[in-house]
Amino acid sequence: MAKRKSKPKTGVKSLKMPAATAYLFAGLGVVFIVIFLGYLFAKGGERKTAEEKKSAPENVIWAGQVAEWKSSGTLLSVTKDQREDGVAVVNREKWNKLHFDSREALAISVARAENIKTLELKDETGYNLGICRYGMRLRENK
Predict the structure, then answer these.
(1) Which residues are bridge partners to 80 per DSSP?
(2) Rounded CA gap, 43 and 92, in Å?
(3) For 67-88, what is each residue's pLDDT tens digit?
């Protein structure tokens, strides 16, 4: 007798899980997606009020620090032009006595309180002590 040739089996393999378990996982996925979308929509309304609350006290803090620097005599004056650049005049003796962190805090607080993008720090004679750009650290001239 002759041997029969066997054809390779082609087609879709059947699922290994029972049908009920597959439906259960699919249903849980749909429920999870609906809950997640509801959460995103609910958080969207709260974001606006959180931004309003956050912006108000921050300006008061920076202005308070600037007033403190002025009252101590370290900061003498601040000027600002139309391009949002500014110059802060400081007392040279008191500036040199400050640590670098305090100098940087002074520059950042003045820049944020006055809404200045690039702040130059100078002494009474006009010597450039450093520059502080918005969102960056203080760069001192030695």
Answers:
(1) 86
(2) 50
(3) 877 888 888 888 888 887 899 8
